[in-house]
Amino acid sequence: MEGKVEALAKELNDNGLHFETKLQQEGELVTQVKCDDKISEEEKNKIRLMRALVEKQDPSSKEVDDFEIRRFLRARDMDVDKASAMLLKCLKWRKNIAPNGSISPSEIPNQIAHNKMFMQGVDKQGHPIAVVLGGRHFQNKLGGPDEFKRFVVLALDKLCSRTSPGREKFVVIGDLQSFGYANSDARAYIGALSILQDCYPERLGKLFVVHVPYLFWAMWKIVYPFIDNKTKKKITFVEDKRLMTTLLQDIDESQLPEIYGGKMPLVPIHEA
């Protein structure tokens, strides 16, 4: 088993991903990191240029704050034209997916019934934490892919509402305990990934993938090409025997979900 883990770690690391295999050194202290990210003068200039460009094409973009514009700029390596096109496309998509400005739980009853996503607590940098139980996701014909997309929007909006300017990221623990063939819904996962990358850029801080079964890797090969390079760097696959140690490096025990040995109860995302 150790040989397989090491081989997998090497493959993931070669692809720009990370597999956590190192234990925290005994006695090492992990302190809270201050992460308020102020807008620089260079960024302000880019933001002004982008705002002027976007507002000419979509007056509703006046409601977009400077931090959101900066996230789109960073997602496109500070290229104003590319970031503007990305934001305009997102604003148009947003009007279609959530014409009332937000998603109500009443619009996604079939997805909520799965009880598969939770939110509670923050990491040591103040980022809100979500837990996704992949073994509870099933392709739901009743609501179809559109309802699943609305569920993703509700979840991401909930997470973003817990952030603040200059501290805009969130952390996700993707738990694949009991993940099987019935949960291998590649279309849904690619759709969720597209929403995250295209309309919530620079929001994901880290994604810890835990309790990973070998069955998962077949689907991973399908999803992997759709992950952009920036997102890949934020994904850590955690070995079971190092699970709590790894999570405690970023999350205090008082904020760690109870199911991982912490003290924080989980709250369904639609109730958070």
TrEMBL record:
Residues 105-268 form the CRAL-TRIO domain. This is Random slug protein 5. It comes from Nicotiana tabacum (Common tobacco). It holds the Pfam family CRAL_TRIO. The lineage of its organism: Eukaryota, Viridiplantae, Streptophyta, Embryophyta, Tracheophyta. PANTHER family: OS03G0850700 PROTEIN, RANDOM SLUG PROTEIN 5-LIKE ISOFORM X1. Signal peptide: none annotated. The gene is LOC107821881. PROSITE patterns: CRAL_TRIO.
